[in-house]
Every structure is written in C-alpha cells, then in structure tokens.
Amino acid sequence: MTDHTETPAESSNVFAESDDSAETGGDPAAADPANAEVSIEDLMAALETVTGERDQHFGDLQRVSADFANFRKQTEKRNAEFAAHAGSRVAEALLPVLDACDAAAQQGVEGVEPISAQLQGILQNSGLEVISDEDEPFDPNRHEAAMTEPGDEGQEVATVAQVLRTGYAWNGRVLRAAMVKVKG
Q1: What is the pLDDT of residue 15?
Q2: Fewer Cβ close by (within 10 Å): the C or N end of the chain?
Q3: 45-79 as b/e: b if 16+ CB within 10 A
Q4: Which domains does the chain carry?
Q5: What's the mean pLDDT when you consider all of the chain?
Q6: pLDDT tens-digit profile of 38-97?
C-alpha cells in the first residue's frame, strides 16, 4: 500500500479546478475564454461600460487640466502682484532721497541734478510716475490740497496752481500724493 500525500501546490490546483468548474456549471469549454462564445449583446454592454468609464476619466482629466491652468494663472498673478508690491516698497523708501536731491538742487548744490535725474530715470523705467500736474484739474486721489486761492471768474473746476511737493505713483498706485496749491 502506497501512501500518497499532496503537496500544497497540488492541493491549490485542485481547488482552482473545482472553482472553475463550479462557476461555469461544469462546462470546461466555458472556463477557457478562447473557446467560449460571447453574444453581441454582452459585447455591446461591455463596450458601453468601457466607453462610459473612458468618458468619465476624460471629463476628470479636463477638469483637472482646467483647475491646473487656473492655479497657474492665479500663481503668476500673485507673483506679479508680489513683485510690484516689493518694487513699490523700494520706490517708497527712495522718496526721501528724491526729495533731498530736489531740495539740494533748489539750494544750488552742484552735481546733484545728474544723480537725481539718473535715479528718477531708473525708477521711472521700473514704474515710477511723477505727479506734478500744474494747471491740471485737481484730483483728490492724486493731490493733497495744502493751500487754496480764489479762482478766475467763471472757473467751474478747481485746478492745481502750484506743486509744493512732488507726488509719486508706482504702476498707477499713488505712493504719495502731490502737495499742491489749488486755484478755484
């Protein structure tokens, strides 16, 4: 009498074969997909399922792509605003230097004009705007009225008669309003 014991690999194959035959109703041809017959309705249903999944994944991809594009635009905008704000802070810190140059030039100190002109030129190329609007309409957003004088007869709009202290704007945002004498 020979005693036959199964190895673990043989016992798992036995279970696999019995599971396949149980699922297919004992038909070995149904267990092999190459020999199985598939109906057109089954293929159409599978195609519709796969097409639906594809469309869902494609829609998800489009949404993620749009979200990423929006994120990139917002980040670029934030970075540009940050850079502009940093530039305006530097320009604002240099305003006392520009005022000192103007005061020195008015006192007749020699050699100040080229330095002042070069500094203003560099800052203007970067976004600095000088606000010195004599004979222009008074704008409370750009001008600070320090003095007033009566206007000409028939004058309806107040105008800037004299600029007492130069004002500056950085990329359209007023850093310091011009101190002016208003006529009218």
Answers
A1: 44
A2: N
A3: eeeeeeeeeeeeeeeeeeeeeeeeeeeeeeeeeee
A4: 72-183 (2.30.22.10)
A5: 82
A6: 899 999 999 999 999 999 999 999 999 999 999 999 999 999 889 888 888 888 899 999
Asked whether the predicted pLDDT for residue 18 surpasses 90, the reply is no
